[in-house]
Amino acid sequence: MVDEIKSYEEAGKIVSKVRSDASKMIQNGLPILDLVEFVESEILKTGAGIAFPCNVSINEITAHYTSPAGDTNKMVTGDLVKLDLGAEVNGYIADSAVTIMVPGDNLEEVFDEDTLELNQRIIDASAAGLEAAISTVRAGVKVCEVGRAVEEAIAEYNLNPVRNLTGHSLEHWNLHAGISVPNYDNNDPTILEEGQAVAIEPFATNGEGIVNDCPYAYIFSFLQSKLFRMKNTQRMLSYIEKNYRYLPFSGRWLTENFNEHRVNSGLKQLGDAMAIYTYAALKERTGAWVSQKEHTLIVESDGCHITTL
Question: Same domain, yes or no, for 33 and 124?
Fold first, then answer.
């Protein structure tokens, strides 16, 4: 029998190491695709699996951006880069994120002093929100109490949490297992229980704290088997079901086995038919910049054990 806690811990150590190494790569002019592919390949080198496509969401893009095949977008000095990654060991998942301001010798030329101070405050606020959440988590605590701690910590920076994004419970082969952990007090009375794995991820912004869908999506997950008249679409769905039945996948991954143009058209057909779920990239509604900080924890009777430190 697989030891559940040991698998969670092993996945956490892998994510922590890859997150640290990838963070050091962030610099002016780095292609987003290079960072994404580094993270994913480093996870696979350990023998672990990728829990979801590496997210590199920049500035007002809040979440769910991973590079499509051939992505030419690059990060530039001063950008707020949200690096969100996950690994699985024996189906047990670690999920973690960090926000880094892209360094550069000309940082003071790119932004005035007030803007630099604001952007650093945005980064610090999500980190403070996570610390407050971690200090609140223990068996018997309501998730709304965790959300209140996040909200209050971020408010001390005169900023807002993103209210329509949440942390989430984790289970075997299940990235979003049913319990949502809010970033504000939403009055949810759900109780955290000892032994639960939870990913907590405060987002902070000087905007409204509401995200909307972008008109593009590069992350998907399998929903159900269906029959399609187009042989390529049917073959693609069979491949997805075989290889990515439980966890999200990137359209970019499919281009190793399918023509890129057919991948794009096939994914649209599969999404329209509800054979797969499409995760649109998310953007802060007012265009304000956003930070994120995330750890995975195991709830204990008197606190929690962080697996992704």
Answer: yes
- Catalytic site includes residue 201: yes
Is residue 95 part of the annotated active site? The answer reads yes
| CATH at residue 260 | 1.10.10.10
8 A C-beta contact, residue 89 and residue 168: no
Count of structural domains, the chain: 2
Q: Considering 9, 40, 71, 84, which one is annotated as catalytic?
A: 84
**Cα–Cα distance list, 225 to 26, 192, 270, 279, 298 (Å):** 40, 34, 10, 19, 34
**pTM for the whole thing?**
0.97
Mean pLDDT of the chain: 97
Both tokens assigned to 183: 């970033």
Q: Please state, in angstroms and as integers, the Cα–Cα distance from residue 42 to each residue in 15, 17, 253, following that order.
A: 9, 9, 15
Tokens of 262: 């057919």
